[in-house]
């Protein structure tokens, strides 16, 4: 076993087993008893027989097991993991005030952060997710602790120190725009000499209601400074958009000049285009907002479980996909309770059926193939958008060139009294597996 | 350990731990570090100190663990367990035709039934459910095999040989009403000398579209015969009601004389009143149907996950509860994918929020307390309704007199970085636990 791990660390190896991945948004491909090759941490493709060129690679035999791409969680709140499943009786704005904000305030205490983020990181290592876009809190030391822990774990993540200077309780509000911006610069400076291999900063204004115009302007300056120093796509950005109708009405009051909620970000040059951007939710995004997102290549993190738990609604995912807006899945822990993106896939399918049934008869439900694509390549492609030196590339596919994130699943106890195809076994895995079924997890070619 | 199990088999014992159960539909009670007494297979209550009267009972120390009532699954299809999570891309009537019926037809082969039902029974033993109301298939031998396996498992169940003599494929249709009725009598006769302790027959016309008027009349005669021989409430009944709008339109065509779908059962005297009756779904039940159910004490099996998976809609559970219609939860495997009634609780809460958000603003979402009540006492009380000699009593509560079904949960790995109350631990268990967390399961006072 030690020998194998050593060899794997060289990032040149082949796995043998039953392989499945999304070729396109609507097409899943499966390969029985085939070979998946990892070369220098990237997929070299799937083959029915091991090609001569890779004959010298160590072969790890997972015959009879499923090999799938790692999953990407495009949206979660690390400090909220601690209270997941509690306080599920409120909608967004009251829930933030009563549960999320008081818990996040605790992370000013670095020891608490170390304890809580330690529990989270251990949990995420066992999950089927390999990549994460994560909100931390406003606190620089706690955010760096989280990033250190994630880096140690071998998982790949983008993590944001959160900015918020208004409409938040005293215990969780930065004094003013300049204080918040200074803390952000301090955070980015602290990261510079840490030489992380798998952990990246992402600019994280919480959402329009908690960020003043001055703060947004200051963040735009930080982004441009970073772009000038590194690359135009250097510092990506994540935030929330059109999650809840009360929230949207509030944004309309706060930014009457914006044509839509998304435009409130765009007016500060913090909405896609050159900046790789993820907006979580978009449950109530209208035509104008969706068109703006498409034209600026903004990613949507669809978080079906959270949208149900905190009574936000059902996002028009069929429209996102039809319009070609890049879309992945998010757990949105702790609006969502479950971290696994397998669960997000099945929730996405389920609520899309209710949407068709109850709200929008002309919007066909999300298919299994589409949900699987969103949870793998849909979200995993975001990692190919950013341009920091040494930044990660896209993952979520086994086509040649994608970074090698893979799960090996022992699905023997999900068997049926009849024989199942690889695709049927994949469906069962997505609906029914848990962390016990994951026998190996590779991230960027490393076994973690 | 052997000693303890022996003592437990006497059905007089006490458990010590952190206890939670529903006192009423809206009130959950929790008891830290307390004693739950089982006397002759029934709860004798919860006490802060062990009362003198029970001082001689063996005490099993579960300090630090949660003790909860067992859960009741009021609606599932045993033969569909084999294909759960497959074919989730259709709505009810097409799904029946393409997936459910062809699979059920296989159970004419007793060997297949033994294999498939063996897998199911092993799975159910590990689940948090202790009681079940189950549809088998039309096949008498396979139904008896299932009942034998369930009896061996120690679980408590009502199982129905299904009746269907029209609008079904040739491979899964009884030739005519008399053939179906004769098979039902044959099945009941076969059970008479089996002396099950925990397994009961329940009359199971599949649904109106697959049962002719003659068949319904014949089943009513069988029910009355049984009532005369035993007790008025002798042979309970289960079926489906108002799951899907196309189905309802079809019933309207088939029974134009019925005032509503429920009335199509009532016109044959197979809808509550003296007969303990469960109707699954009721997603689209109108005012007239709901009033009919209330007046006849018909139970509703609310199956939120199935209603989402096969695009049925969201049942008006707030109305069921406000009107006082007895309501429990069902997995509806394999319209539902997950057998655990913990999952049904959280699904019920979740979809009720979407219902308020999207369909019925005046219907408040189901609270955690209500969902927990539905999955325990709400459904468990049905077992106190039937009146076969030796039949089971109600369960789902630890008030004195309820049959002793209990789960012991080790929730240590669901801990938070802060201390949790018993109620918070219960919420976490309901949302996050799996079969690994169940360290003991008692059914009618027996450790299984």
Q: Mind explaining what this structure looks like?
A:
The first copy, chain A, has 448 residues and is of the alpha/beta class. Chain A is 37% helix and 21% strand. Chain A has 14 helices and 17 strands. Chain A has helices at residues 2-9, 92-105, 110-126, 140-153, 177-192, 213-229, 245-254, 261-266, 287-296, 304-309, 317-323, 341-358, 368-380, 422-432, and strands spanning 12-22, 28-39, 42-47, 59-69, 71-77, 129-135, 156-160, 162-163, 199-201, 204-205, 237-241, 277-281, 299-302, 327-329, 406-409, 438-443, 446-447. In chain A, strands 3-2-1-4-15-16-17 form a 7-stranded mixed β-sheet. A 4-stranded parallel β-sheet of chain A has the order 5-6-7-9. In chain A, strand 2 and strand 3 (42-47) form a beta hairpin. The longest helix of chain A is centred in the last third of the chain and has 18 residues, at 341-358. Chain A is globular and about 60 Å long. Chain A starts with a helix and ends with a strand. Mean pLDDT of chain A is 95; it is low at 1-8. The interface between A and B is large, with 46 and 46 residues.
How would you sum up this structure in a few lines?
With 448 residues, chain A is α/β, with parallel strands linked by helices. Helices cover 37% and strands 21% of the residues of chain A.
